[in-house]
């Protein structure tokens, strides 16, 4: 009896000017969320999605179909990605010095590492704790395996400090003549599981075989090295596929704005994942949040003032070609891209947003975040957006990054343990709701965020996005 007048009232009400839509979205995204079912489908039926792999191609097709099933206008934008493959990987302590018996070490190749030639690399290990120590090794490093052993602090912020050992350590070791590199896994917990991630040969360093070693085996190496010289045999079958590049795509969909369709609010996540697990927390969770946000917005009686565009980026993990390609292709449109929001911090509950839009922008986002009070997700602070939207940030687009509870994120990140069972459904649903509300609010607000100037306009130190490669 009561339902009909309520519905009529809802349909007749001017949708733009009130808090009704955020409230309704909040209820719908929690009551009828498809986020969890979608994530199970992506991770269980497609699985690993390393850029350039058949899994990534299947994910592109899956995402396009899913957007279309939601009744959305969806399309692909081509992206050429570097195709790196893993192959065999093995490491063993060789008898000699303090080692009385051979022992296997749990290792996994780092993205962009070359393989070992012939029968593998056998070399003495030399331990360092920082890039500076590695650079200072000089001739001592020649022909050796440089072992970067620095424990990651528990919790999210430790990643930003430690990640450079993985991204830049092997190149630093190569410059002083090392034959290979081992990097202690960037992990806050371990069941002797190595955590991969990309390494970079920037600055013309000649590529050398580089692998992550499990936390337990990093500790073992450290104890043995205190007893005497240690040799390791490293065999890696990884390298670039032939041809080294593959045609892939970003997957897009949008809801056109009702008043200013030329102004775009971008919501993004990355569709690719590392190959060891099934990319549930990194970044399948972000993918389904973005899909759910656009679906829920499309179900509103009226579109928001501006266009909301979902972008599922390809190859955030091992090349960033999707993020860079989007910025190039849409360069002419970036002055009218009023905000870009990325979800790439796992599947935990939402805390709020980090923002690059100056103090005035922070104040506006705080106001827009007020409907998130019931989710306890109103924390708004200065900080960088995700890696995929960093090229947009450089072009002056205000960026936001969904901040989430990440206390266990780096237990599983980039490892074989990144699987669907780690996801707490209610937490993922709440984060999807936070993305939905913020996307709506940014697209509907009468005013827009201030454009970003060249230097960071706020004094607070930037919060590193947990998965900035
Ligand atoms: Zn990620």
Radius of gyration: 23 Å
Structural category is: alpha/beta
User: Which homologous superfamily in CATH is the superfamily of the largest domain?
Assistant: Zn peptidases
Side by side, the strands of the main sheet go 1-10-12-11-13-16-14-15
Q: What ligands can be seen in this structure? A: zinc ion
CATH class of the largest domain reads Alpha Beta
Biggest sheet features:
8 strands, mixed
Spans of at least 5 consecutive residues whose pLDDT stays below 50 are 1-17, 455-469
CATH topology of the largest domain: Aminopeptidase
Helical stretch count? Answer: 13
Mean pLDDT: 92
**CATH architecture heading of the largest domain:** 3-Layer(aba) Sandwich
Roughly what percent helix? 25-40%
Number of domains: 2
Give the overall form. Answer: elongated
Number of strands: 16
Order of helices and strands: HHHHEEEEEHEHEEHEEEHEHEEHEHEHH
Give the amount of beta strand, in percent: 15-25%
First-residue to last-residue Cα separation: 55 Å
Describe the structure.
The chain is of the alpha/beta class and 469 residues long. The protein folds into two domains: 18-84 and 244-444, Aminopeptidase (3-Layer(aba) Sandwich), CATH 3.40.630; 89-237, Glucose Oxidase, domain 1 (3-Layer(bba) Sandwich), CATH 3.50.30. The chain contains 13 helices and 16 strands. It has helices spanning 3-12, 20-31, 35-46, 54-69, 131-135, 158-175, 215-227, 280-298, 321-329, 358-368, 390-394, 409-412, 425-444, and strands at residues 73-85, 89-93, 103-105, 107-109, 121-128, 145-148, 180-184, 210-213, 231-236, 239-255, 260-270, 306-313, 337-342, 350-356, 379-382, 399-404. The chain has an eight-stranded mixed β-sheet. An eight-stranded mixed β-sheet has the order 3-2-9-5-6-7-8-4, with helices on both faces. Helix 2 packs antiparallel against helix 13, helix 3 (35-46) crosses helix 8 and helix 8 (280-298) packs across helix 13. It is elongated. Mean pLDDT is 92; it is low at 1-17 and 455-469. Bound molecules: zinc ion. Zinc ion is lined by residues 270, 282-283, 316, 344, 467.
